[in-house]
Design a protein that fits this description.
Layout: H1 2-16, H2 19-23, H3 25-30, H4 36-63, H5 69-75, H6 78-111, H7 115-129, H8 134-162, H9 167-174, H10 184-208, H11 213-240, H12 242-245, H13 251-259, H14 261-290, H15 298-312, H16 317-345, H17 347-368, H18 376-388, H19 393-410, H20 425-430
């Protein structure tokens, strides 16, 4: 479970640590602009984000969602769910095309590329990666994350160690940072609203790919705590260096470049990877939502939305962050309230379902293991648990058979023969297995 939870945590960070975060532009406008109180705001925002991440992953896992509307309808009335759906669709598209602008700004600042060249490179990467299924997309997003963690933590510690900590002068300099937000607490709430509305759709889809709701919750917790460390460190570091990097388009990149130009070049590549991560997550979740009734149209809708977003990205990165992000953040606060309330109401139900699924998977493994006896009592328990689950029997059995088969196939001590492709999982698990020593046992049957 821990390995799966860590994978979820890395993917979660990969979703929300995009162009604005990794470049430092978000931290400057939402937190550093308010001086020392902005640091307090960063801690508060991180704690709210942790709870929101747990809720999104667990609700997605509980419903086995393939797109976000299943969860929205679970936690809120139909009218509210419809509003949340529209807000999320708008956010996915808006953040997606902001990422293209970030890709262009990143390469322009570090390597003097034309803005269109960096944006086009981002476009090509997003188009190719979007052709994979959700499991591969989750791994792609997660595998990039450790690199940005290393750079953010390293640059932040260097900044803290070498800064001239004249807090009064730093507060004066921070007040010169351009922001459209009125004060520190609005900035904190707006930022967490932005993060939630940015990540909620893909987080729900990722959670839906996790059968164990407990593992999904642990992944959200780990991701939230990691986010707390990264955001707080980054805000402190940029605040301490605000007099030198406060006017840069990508201040975190400028901070790393000040340590050494070679590190700056490497950081630019890492920032590009995080921009790609977020763009991929946004457009993938958008495509899944828009094609929920016609999943076979996913690729064509995905490609079309990516191309339209690319065209809109040339407004300019800083301008987009200044105006698009705060607007989305205010809308995201409503999503936080609805998701949080639904998660709190359903915690006991989800906990019971998590235990039920673990037992079902154990019974399925027992049923398919040629070394074990699957009795009438086991079959009755499996049927009862299946009926109590919130998932349909056919979907539930398909999932637990798939996981049981993978576990048995990976066990070198089991001589396991996989089920035929046309086997019906419900039928396989509805009858007791043969007694030990029966010549019609699994190794001899045509299960």
């Amino acid at each position: 479970m821990l390995k799966r939870a860590l994978g979820i945590a890395m993917a979660f960070i990969g979703l929300i640590v995009g162009a604005g975060f990794a470049s430092g532009q978000e931290m400057m406008q939402f937190f550093v602009a308010f001086g020392t109180m902005g640091i307090v705001g960063a801690v508060i925002a991180s704690l709210i984000m942790t709870v929101s991440g747990i809720a999104a992953f667990q609700l997605g896992s509980y419903t086995q969602a393939t797109e976000h509307t299943a969860v929205f309808r679970l936690v809120s009335p139909r009218a509210v769910a419809g509003f949340m759906d529209l807000v999320t669709i708008a956010t996915l598209f808006a953040i997606g095309f902001v990422m293209f602008a970030g890709g262009g700004a990143n390469m322009a600042q570090q390597f003097d590329w034309p803005v269109w060249a960096g944006a086009t490179l981002t476009l090509a990467a997003v188009l190719v990666a979007g052709m994979f299924d959700v499991s591969k997309v989750t791994r792609i997003i997660g595998v990039m994350t450790p690199f940005i963690i290393v750079f953010l933590v390293g640059a932040s510690l260097w900044s803290i160690a070498t800064a001239d900590a004249d807090v009064r002068m730093l507060n004066v300099a921070a007040a010169q940072v351009r922001t459209t937000l009125p004060n520190w607490w609005v900035g904190a709430l707006n930022y967490v609203g932005l993060c939630v509305v940015t990540a909620v759709s893909m987080a729900i889809v990722m959670g839906g790919d996790v059968f164990d709701t407990r593992a999904a919750g642990v992944g959200g917790l780990l991701g939230g705590l990691l986010f707390l460390v990264l955001l707080t460190l980054s805000v402190v570091a940029l605040f301490l260096q605000v007099r030198t990097v406060g006017s840069d388009e990508l201040p975190m990149l400028a901070l790393v470049d000040a340590i050494h130009p070679t590190l700056g070049a490497a950081m630019s590549v890492v920032v590009f990877a995080m921009i790609f991560n977020t763009a991929l997550g946004m457009f993938y979740a958008l495509g899944k939502r828009l094609t929920r009734r016609r999943p076979e149209w996913f690729r064509r809708v995905y490609i079309a939305s990516v191309l339209v977003g690319f065209g809109l990205s040339f407004i300019g990165f800083r301008e987009l962050v200044s105006y698009v992000y705060p607007a989305l953040g205010y809308l995201g606060l409503g999503v936080i309230v609805a998701m949080g309330a639904g998660w709190l109401r359903g915690r006991e139900t989800m906990s019971a379902e998590s235990a039920r699924r673990q037992r079902l998977r154990a019974l399925a493994t027992l049923r398919l293991d040629p070394r074990q006896e699957f009795t009438d009592r086991d079959a009755a328990e499996l049927r009862e648990l299946s009926e109590d689950s919130n998932l349909s029997t056919s979907d539930l059995h398909a999932i637990i058979v798939d996981r049981a088969e993978k576990a048995l196939a990976a066990d070198p001590e089991v001589d396991y023969v996989p089920l035929p492709d046309d086997a019906e999982p419900t039928g396989i698990l509805s009858e007791p297995g043969p007694a030990e020593g029966d010549p019609s046992g699994p190794e001899h049957s045509d299960r």
